[in-house]
User: Fold this.
Amino acid sequence: MNSIESGNIFFNLQKSLMAKACFFAFNQVCKDKEINHFIDNCINGKNKHIGVFSNLLLKENLHSPRSLEPEVVKSNVSPFSDKLILFHSGFLIAAAISYYGSAVVTSIRADIAFHCEKAIFDDLILFGGFGKLLIKKKWLEQPPYADDRKIVSQIGKENQGSF
Assistant:
């Protein structure tokens, strides 16, 4: 493993550990059950990524950054609204996608690139859930869809015989 690869892995691990601590804190103060479920999925995703990337460093006899969950104080009083918690969670997922992408393009080893691409895919699925939740809560407007050409085409065929 070269220094660029190990540096990217270490940095992404630090970012994942920080995001997991934020998700952990958000989850204990958020009141909305749907947002809590989304955050649970985020924590599970980060646990998976932390395990994969920590193992890559351990196989090379390199150390991993420490967990940050002990730094989270036990509280049930939220300093943020559920809306802001969700937006911050989405930002953390979007940032992770970007940083994993940077690690992919600078990696020479195929196994490292594969793990980064898999992490991107996992986070893209989470990010899709983030968007759907924003729309469901009416915190983001549903963008317009393209016309359904199949329906328009079918209506045109049905009307051909009426002229």
Observations:
- The helical segments are 3-29, 33-59, 82-106, 110-136, 149-160.
- The mean pLDDT is 91.
- The radius of gyration is 21 Å.
